[in-house]
Amino acid sequence: MITQKFGFALLTVLVLGLNMACAPKEQSTAAPVKSAPVFDTQQSIAELMQWVIDPAADAIWDSVSWVSNEKGTKANAPKNEEDWKALRVHASILVESANLLMLEGRAKDQDVWMQQARNFGLEARKNLKAIEEKNVDKLFDIGGDLDHACESCHLKYANYKTETTVK
Fold it and tell me: What own/partner pairs with CB < 8 Å and gap ≥ 24 does 83-91 have?
């Protein structure tokens, strides 16, 4: 009889244990804790400017022009789909470079720097849109706005040219 009671008790514990193990878990109402991503910002702003941003901006600025002289006016503009694709890449680099400038470890401050980096990104996006529309006149017209976004930041943070990390 003791064995029967012991067996019944053991069976009850096993059934309850299995029931608890197989029961659906209650969802926690607390939001999972996410750690902030760690970005590698060892490349200096000067290097980012020299190797990424300046070449992409120059490609856009150089893509459209009109040269007038005694022989007449010569238009310089994208001539084919490959030219437009290359410009799209350069404009996309500029759009994303605005984000690179705002990363912790690279941003000079959380006020003016961030505002100017966002403005640079908006101007770069306008250039991307003109490129997607294949609108030569618009691309020419807004090139000055992109230049102004760059220069207004350079006036305040001109010391970026003295930074270097890669030798």
Answer: 84/131, 84/134, 86/59, 87/59, 87/60, 87/63, 87/131, 87/139, 88/128, 88/131, 88/132, 90/55, 90/56, 90/57, 90/59, 90/60, 91/56, 91/60, 91/124, 91/125, 91/127, 91/128, 91/131
Span 123-149, average pLDDT: 96
pLDDT at position 36 is 75
Read off the CATH number of the domain in which 84 is found.
1.20.120
Asked whether residue 134 is domain-assigned, the answer is: yes
Has residue 7 been placed in a domain? no
Give domain status of residue 22, yes or no.
no
Q: How many structural domains are present in the chain? A: 1
Instruction: Assess if residue 88 is contained within a domain.
Output: yes
Residue from 96, 103, 102 nearest 124 by CA: 96
Domain that holds residue 55: 45-158
| Mean pLDDT of the 66-78 span | 91
**What distances in angstroms separate CA 59 from CA 15, 52, 128, one per listed residue?**
73, 11, 13
